[in-house]
Amino acid sequence: MLKVKYNLKMIPRFNIVKFSNAFKINSITLRLLQLRNMSHLKYESGPIKVAERVAHFKQDVWSIFTPLAAQLKAVNLGQGFMNFPPPDFVRKAAISAINTNDCNQYSHPKGRLRAREALAKSYSPLFDRTLDPETEVITSAGANEGLYAIFAGFLDDGDEVILIEPFFDQYIANITMNGGVPVYVPLRPHGDTNKIISSRDWKLDINELRSKITPKTKILVFNTPHNPVGKVFSREEMLEIAQVVQEFNLLLISDEVYDRLYYKPDVHERIATLPGLWDRTITVGSGGKTFGTTGWRVGWSIGPKHLIKTVLAAQTRIVFCVNSPLQEAIAISIEEAEAHGYYEENIALYEQRRDKLCKALSDAGLPYTIPQGSYFILANTKRINIPEDYEYPEILLNRPKDFKVCYWMAKEIGVVAIPPSEFYSEENRHLGEDYARFAFCKTDETLEAAAKALLKLKKYINE
Ligand SMILES: Cc1ncc(COP(=O)(O)O)c(C=O)c1O
C-alpha cells in the first residue's frame, strides 16, 4: 500500500473518491482529506430547522387547559386523569415489584412474562379463545405507545388511515409521524341535541364510511367505549364495520382502553370476536384506565401472532421495553382484580360519578349526552350566552368557538372542560364547536364543587 506523506494545507481540493481509490489510503487519512475538502463551506447561524413531521403541530389542548385550571384554581374536569389514588391492592403490587430485584432491570420487549400471562388468562374468556402469552399479547408504554408501534409497523408513506370523529387526538401525530394520512368520517348525533340524549344516538353512517375508502386505505381505527362521546357500539353496528374491513382487506385497530367501564344495560362487546375479524384486528388496552394509574404508562395489545410480531419489531426499536416494576404491578393487579371484585365495584363507583355529573349539568340547564361507557360527558354549550365583547388570551384567538367557551367557563364559572373540536379534522371541526367535554374520573368532593360552580351558568343560558 502506498504511504502518503503530506501537509494537509498543501493539498489542493480535489475529487476525494477518485483519489482514495487510486491510492488506497486508510479511513483516517480519508476523513482528514474530506474535512480539508469541506473547509471552504460556510455554515449559517440561526435556529435549528424543525423536522416537517412536527413543525405543523399546534399547542395541544391539554397544555392549554390543564395549566389554566391550576392558574385559575378552577375545578378541573378537563384532562381524563383520576384525582384519587389507585386501589390499595394495586399500590401494594407496585411496592412489592420495586422490592423485587429483577423487576428493576430490563424486561423482554414483548413484555414481562408475568404480565403477558396475566393478560392472556384474564382476556382469553373475553375473546372466546385461548390467548398465547408468547405470541398474541404484548405490553406497551401506555396504550398510546402501543398505537404508535402499530402504526410504525404497518404504515408506509401515503397509506391512509380512517378515523371516526371525534377521536382521541394522539392518533393524528401517531399516524402522520409514521408517514400515514388520516381520513375522517364523523359520528353524528341524532335527535334533539338541545335536550338530553344518549351516546347511543351518535351514529356512524356506514355508507359515508364506505365513501372514504380508496385503494390507499390500509387501517381503520375503531374506539369503543368511546372517548369523548361515551358510546358503546352495539353488535349490529360492529357487524356493519366488520363487513367493510373484510371487504376492503383493512387492518382494524380496536382501541378499547375503557373496556372495563360500561354502564347497565350496555355491555362492551369485542369487535375482534366477530366472525372473521380475529385475523385482522389488534385490540389495544390500558393499565392506566383500568386501574386508575394513568401515569404508570403501561398498556397492551392483543391480536394474532402474524400481527403482534410486527408490533414487537417496531416497539423494540421505539422503547425497547416497557418499564419493568410497573408492568409487574399491573400483572399482579390483573391477577388479583377478580378476587377483589374490583371491576364490578369500579363500574358501580363510576356510575355514581356519572350520575352526579349528569345531575349537575341538568341543574345548570345544560343539555348533554348520557355516556354508556368511559368517563366523559359531552355537554351541549350552544345555548350559553357569552358577552360579545368578552376578552380572550392571544393563544385562543385563532381557535374554534368551543376553545373560547371553555376558557370563559374556566374563568367565569370556575370549571374546566375540554373543547372537543380538537378531536375533529379541520373539515368537520364545526361538528364539535357546540360541545364541551367533562371528565368524571374525579372524587365526589370535586364533582360536588363542580356542581355548585356550574349553577352559576344558569343566568347565561338562553331558554
Ligand atoms: C381513546 C383513548 N385511547 C388511548 C388512550 C391512551 O391511553 P394511555 O394513557 O394508556 O396511553 C386514551 C387516553 O386518554 C384514550 O382516551
Question: What is the domain total for the residues?
Answer: 3
Structural class: alpha/beta
**Average pLDDT, to the nearest integer?**
93
Q: Would you tell me which CATH topology of the largest domain applies?
A: Aspartate Aminotransferase, domain 2
Protein name: kynurenine--oxoglutarate transaminase
Cofactor: pyridoxal 5'-phosphate
Organism: Cetraspora pellucida
Keywords: Aminotransferase, Pyridoxal phosphate, Transferase
Overall description:
Strand 11 and strand 12 form a beta hairpin. The chain folds into three domains: 31 residues, no CATH class; 150 residues, Aspartate Aminotransferase, domain 1 (Alpha-Beta Complex); 250 residues, Type I PLP-dependent aspartate aminotransferase-like (Major domain) (Aspartate Aminotransferase, domain 2, 3-Layer(aba) Sandwich). With 463 residues, the protein is α/β, with parallel strands linked by helices. The strands form three sheets. The chain has an eight-stranded mixed β-sheet with strand order 2-10-9-8-7-3-4-6, with helices on both faces. The chain has a four-stranded mixed β-sheet with strand order 5-11-12-14. Strands 1-13 form a two-stranded parallel ribbon. It contains 16 helices and 14 strands. 38% of the residues lie in helices and 14% in strands. The site of pyridoxal-5'-phosphate has 13 residues, from helix 7. Keywords: Aminotransferase, Pyridoxal phosphate, Transferase. It holds the Pfam family Aminotran_1_2. Its cofactor is pyridoxal 5'-phosphate. This is kynurenine--oxoglutarate transaminase.
